[in-house]
Amino acid sequence: MGATAFPYVFRILGGDDLVHTFMGATDFGPWCVLLLAILLIFLMGFFFDVLEILLIAVPLFGPMIVPLDFGAHIAQPDVIYWFAVLVAITLQTSFLTPPMGLSLFYIKGVAPKSVTMRQIYVGIVPFVALQMLCVALVLAWPQIVVYLPHRLFDL
């Protein structure tokens, strides 16, 4: 219930308008806006559940990112799919990042009693690094995302 209520309160209080006004007032280029969105989604994963992030971040950042022109890096019609996959990969880290990392609590539940939460937190660092590497790869080569749909559907 809280995950559903938070984004509505955020919108009612004008949070999304504030963010759009701030972004419009800056001279950020398309890459800076995209990286800022991905970074904020990553940071939100520390504190919010995936559902909350989806209900806040996607409606907030999606309309800002989709019309941006990334030049020859990715075709304009493919930006929405590229952004969606970037968000999905980044959201996967929210299952692994403390303090809200639900997977960490699942691991603690099935691990032997001798395994501490600190050990689990230290153990997830390589996996979070791999997730961020995947984000970097998809950022650098959007063809990773759009290759198969283009081949299957002749987009």
- Strands, total number: 0
Mean of the pLDDT scores? Answer: 87
Main β-sheet: number of strands, strand sense, barrel status?
none
Question: What amount of the residues lies in strands?
Answer: under 5%
**Topology as a string of helices (H) and strands (E):** HHHHHHHHH
Query: Count of helices?
Result: 9
What is the straight-line distance between the termini? 39 Å
Question: Helix- and strand-based class?
Answer: mainly alpha
The low-confidence parts are none
Cα-based radius of gyration, to the nearest Å = 18 Å
Q: Percent helix among the residues? A: over 70%
Note the overall shape.
globular
Write the layout of secondary structure elements.
Elements: H1 2-12, H2 15-25, H3 30-47, H4 50-65, H5 79-92, H6 102-110, H7 117-123, H8 125-140, H9 143-153
In short:
With 155 residues, the chain is mostly helical. The protein contains 9 helices and no strands.
Describe the protein's architecture and organization.
It is a single chain. By secondary structure, this protein is mainly alpha-helical. 73% of the residues lie in helices and 0% in strands. The protein is built from 9 helices and no strands. Helix 4 runs antiparallel to helix 5 and helix 5 runs antiparallel to helix 8. It starts with a helix and ends with a helix.
Essential attributes:
single chain; mainly alpha; 155 residues; globular
